[in-house]
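Posting this for the archive.
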Amino acid sequence: MRNIKAIIIDQNPAVRADVQKMLALSGYAVLGEAGYGIEAVSLAKDTTPDIVLVSLEEPLVRAFQTVAALVDLLPQAAIIVYSNSKDSNTVRKAMLAGAKDYLPAPLKEEELIESLHKVLAQEERRRQRLSGEAAEPRASGTVLTVFGAKGGIGKTTIASNLAASIVLSTNSSVVLVDLDTRFGDVAILMDIPVERSIADLAIQEEEITKEMVQACLYTHNTGVFVLPAPIRPMDWRHVHAGHIEQIMNVLAQTYDYVILDTPGTFNDIVARALELANVVLLVATVDLTSMKDTLLALDMLRSWNFPQERVKLIVNNTNEVTPMQSSEVKRMLGREVFWTIPYERAISTLTQLGLPLVVAKPDAKAAESMKQLAMALSGAKQSAPPKVEKPPVNGFLARILGWSEEMLEVRTD
């Protein structure tokens, strides 16, 4: 990050000192501070900052006059206002005056730094567009990364059922990508025999084309496209984060939704999958080890200045023990639970047979929950779902294990 210069405009010297400390700790150069009016304008003239933080407090008329003067004086600077007022009219006036963001007071360091990153990125894109440096904008699908701090918590089950639910409920195009570098199980859960995989795309990133990616995709009977992990973990050795970014860029230009299933470990590929995500579904179970690991994962994301509004906490009940209340989870993790998936005994058997729950038992409570989750994430109204034939139960895993068709029929009762 280049040396970003900032000034603080606030009538309260104590608040100015607190804000200056937040900025300094995050590497921003604070060139000065002032109150409203002539004092603020004089400071702006002398310093020509990149960022101006302005408090909006009474008298609001004077505060808005100051914002308007600063906007006229510093057309290249980004002005961010903060205020105790929650009045929508005050927010609207601030944005019409030229503010780039509106933050609640008292300021929180995490929210302030996140706002600065966003505003500066927007200003850089605007500058590139005006100078002709920016590439022509392209349509892009939504990237959903299913992430969790440990294995065995149902990430792959959620990813595969979510993919099927979005297709069946909204008729959108969805591709499910297996990024589990240890034991990718998406192909088994979707009953797909893997002959080609993401490992076949481990070439120069600039050479990865839409045609190459599509040649490695399989189509599930629900209509979900699948880019599987290689069968042998060693085949991942030539795949790196640059490949993942290029593949995701290709897929996001082709499909409405790109769902990334990640392992219970952290590596460069997982880091890139999180960076690329529009939404991160952070999956946890209610056992203490999962709660502890999830808390560490949240701390890690905060240390990256990762936009917290992109992170949605999903609690998956994987056993019949009385589920922990959302209020208890919030108390332990300091975060609201976005979604809770109830326990379903049949999931274990169905996933081993390559049958998504939302297809095999669509009326089950967990299936209904995942369908509603799909609707919440897509923001779409449910359309008439296409008829999907229930796939045969003598699936890929069954063939590996040597189970007979009769045995399988009994197991799915």
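The two ends are 59 Å apart (CA to CA). The chain has two domains: 5-131, 142-411.
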